[in-house]
Write a structure and sequence with these properties.
The structure holds 2 protein chains of 2 kinds. By secondary structure, chain A is mainly α. Chain A has 6 helices and no strands. Chain A starts with a helix and ends with a helix. Chain B has a two-stranded antiparallel ribbon. The chains are: A mainly alpha, B mainly alpha. At the A-B interface, helix 1, helix 2, helix 3, helix 4 and helix 5 of A face helix 8, helix 9, helix 18, helix 19 and helix 20 of B.
Chain lengths: ~150, ~500
């Protein structure tokens, strides 16, 4: 079933894409194939494959049980928020906030989660920023305090 | 031949500087660890370390040496968890569990690990010699390719991968096509037209390669790890002798050599890879050994065969990437992306224009494998310790390191958010059994494909016939179609035959 739905979504994407790609025209052109042909070709093939997917008989996707799926969704959101706060909170604080809940999902105790969070946040900051010269954000709030 | 030798020596001079030796050693160590952790394989290891190498401003040859050492190390690491945990550390080690774990249960974990380390070494060495012998010839031949032939060659690479990987043809093709489609995002370099940028400033230069790679191979992997969270199985303890004895070695020596050769050639073919090579070699060795062998119950040959084959094929798959600029597997596609980050375009001309890089890389494979053999036999107990890293520390650690890599390259959080979203989509695709390797190959090849197509049609003034104009092009089309349909037709006929017998 999920394959059917996904195939339908892909078909819509390919139709919408072709509609968008119609506008890809070079103001002046000295080559026979412009910027439009390749995306159009890909999108058309994608549409055909989407139909093939929908017509395929076997359906194999086995989704994990709802509880696990909720955890996975939460994991995704945590990483997303982590990505968004990465430079706003600074690497260390953002990492601590990301590690603690994820460690809990993987059945670490509260103590382990907090220790892991602080350890990873501080340890990786020292490793990358100080030792390997890969600059990491310290965070706006810290900059404000430090002036 | 003489000049090849001189060039190889030049390569050793590049790879043999103290700095690069150190980098190779670190890469080998990290690679083995990444390889032995179930869930993380060579592609994740290379994907996560690539941006970090780039951000550390390593020169291109050192970065490549690091990535190659990691790649080689992963192939060694996969066997450790296969033998001790019965869980393959990477896809190539699936077959190693069949005889490796039974050996460990019999108290022969030490010999199983040491014979498989030697088999890995033999496989990798044979394949690296194969690269030295065949790559320059192939590169010379490919120099005659025009844009039309190149376009068809890339179609062939995608068809091979699409035909062999995964269980459904539409799914494999969709994965290719999504990758190709995403590669068109951004300003078209020929005409300056904005394509699929949706007015977002950050999308003007296209979706950065690293963002795609981290999303698909790190973020979605974390989500899958939560799905497959295993209840803590304890690794088997290594008791008794560490080394195999003479009798075991004599039993396995021809197996190693045969599987190394077969693995190399399977690896060179685009699409087939370590998984297929190890499965085929295991099956044929088992057949050759006859009925009264111990295959499946802990035969040394059953450990040696897949390990020799998967290391040989992993190295063999570097051949099309280096010589044609057309990678044939997911991991080599990521490595090629690494080269393009440094503005190096792999392909036949690479051998003439950048001999230091090509031969440095080849020499580093020799060096890395010697290091890996030296690390893997005496230090095996050290590596085994890493098997007990708990997931509650490993998973958030991988998440943080991945984000560090992406952030270090472009320094904005838009990329991080985009990578996470791509990872979420990647997770959905992977649960639905979409293969990911064609996706990344499509993304890496997309721009080159389009450019070659447009160049070919410019030369012919829009005449489509140019794509079928030369014997090479026609041959490539035929092989492409055969590779796309052939494997599945054979599978279907096999199934049909079985049903008829029943």
């Amino acid at each position: 079933m999920s394959e059917r739905i996904f195939g339908g979504v892909l078909l819509l994407i390919s139709i919408a894409g072709i509609w968008i790609a119609r506008a890809f025209e070079a103001p002046f052109s000295y080559e026979p194939v412009g910027p439009r042909a390749f995306p159009m070709l890909i999108l058309a093939l994608l549409g055909i494959c989407a139909v093939m997917l929908m017509l395929e008989k076997k359906s194999e996707a086995t989704w994990p049980p709802a509880v696990v799926l909720q955890h996975i969704g939460a994991l995704f959101l945590i990483v997303l928020v982590y990505a968004w706060l990465f430079d706003k909170l600074g690497f260390i604080l953002a990492t601590v906030l990301m590690v603690v809940p994820i460690a809990r999902f993987f059945s670490g105790s509260w103590k382990q989660a907090v220790a892991g969070g602080v350890g990873l946040g501080v340890g990786l900051f020292i490793l990358f920023d100080k030792l390997l010269d890969v600059a990491l954000p310290t965070g706006l709030w810290l900059n404000n305090i430090l002036g | 031949m003489d000049s090849t030798f001189a060039l190889l020596m030049q390569g050793f001079a590049v790879a043999g500087t103290p700095e690069n030796l150190m980098i190779a050693l670190i890469g080998c160590f990290l690679g083995t660890i990444v390889g032995l952790l179930p869930g993380l394989g060579p592609i994740n290891g290379v994907a996560i370390l690539l941006p970090i190498a780039f951000a550390m401003k390593l020169p291109p040859e050192s970065a490549l040496i690091l990535l190659c050492a990691v790649y080689a190390g992963c192939e060694y690491g996969g066997r450790i968890s296969a033998i001790l945990l019965n869980v393959p550390g990477d896809a190539g080690a699936v077959m190693t569990t069949l005889d490796g774990y039974p050996m460990a249960r019999k108290g022969l974990a030490g010999p199983a690990l040491s014979i498989s380390a030697v088999a890995s070494f033999v496989g990798a060495m044979v394949a690296t010699l194969g690269i030295v012998l065949f790559a320059p010839i192939l590169a010379e031949w490919a120099i005659a390719f025009g844009p039309a032939e190149y376009f068809v060659l890339m179609v062939l690479a995608l068809c091979c991968l699409g035909g062999l990987v995964g269980d459904s043809l539409p799914k494999a093709l969709i994965a290719c096509l999504i990758g190709l489609l995403l590669s068109t995002v951004g300003i078209d370099s020929n005409s300056g037209v904005y394509r699929f940028t949706f007015e977002a400033l950050h999308l003007q230069d296209g979706i950065p390669f690293i963002v795609i790679v981290i999303g698909l191979f790190a973020v979605s992997e974390l989500m899958l790890m939560l799905q497959h969270a295993r209840s803590g199985t304890e690794p088997m303890a290594i008791t008794g002798r560490l080394m195999f004895n003479m009798k075991e070695f004599m039993l396995a020596k021809w197996t190693m050599l045969r599987c190394s050769l077969a693995g190399f050639f399977i690896g060179v073919l685009p699409g087939a890879g370590a998984t297929i090579a190890s499965a085929m070699c295991y099956a044929s060795e088992r057949r050759m050994a006859g009925k009264d062998s111990d295959f499946g119950k802990g035969d040394v040959r059953g450990v040696a065969a897949p390990e020799a084959a998967n290391n040989a094929s992993a190295n063999g798959s570097l051949v099309p990437m280096l010589t044609l600029g057309v990678p044939g597997s997911g991991t080599t596609a990521v490595m090629m992306g690494a080269l393009t980050l440094y503005n190096i375009t792999p392909g036949p001309t690479l051998f003439q224009e950048q001999p230091a890089i090509v031969w440095g890389l080849i020499a580093s494979l020799f060096i890395a494998n010697v290091m890996l053999l030296a690390l893997n036999i005496p230090l095996i107990r050290v590596f085994v310790k890493f098997l007990s890293i708990p997931n509650w520390l490993l998973v958030p650690g991988v998440a943080a390191i991945s984000m560090v890599g992406v952030y270090a390259v472009h320094g904005n959080t838009f990329d991080l958010v985009l990578g996470t979203v791509i990872g979420g989509i990647g997770y959905i695709l992977r649960v639905m059994n979409f293969p990911i390797a064609p996706f990344i190959l499509g993304f890496v090849l997309g721009d080159m494909m389009e450019q070659n197509l447009r160049r070919a049609l410019s030369i012919s003034d829009g005449e489509i016939g140019v794509l079928f104009g030369s014997p090479i092009a026609i041959g490539l089309w035929v092989v492409a179609i055969a590779m796309l349909i052939g494997p599945r037709l054979m599978k279907m006929r096999e199934k049909h035959g079985e049903e008829a017998v029943v």
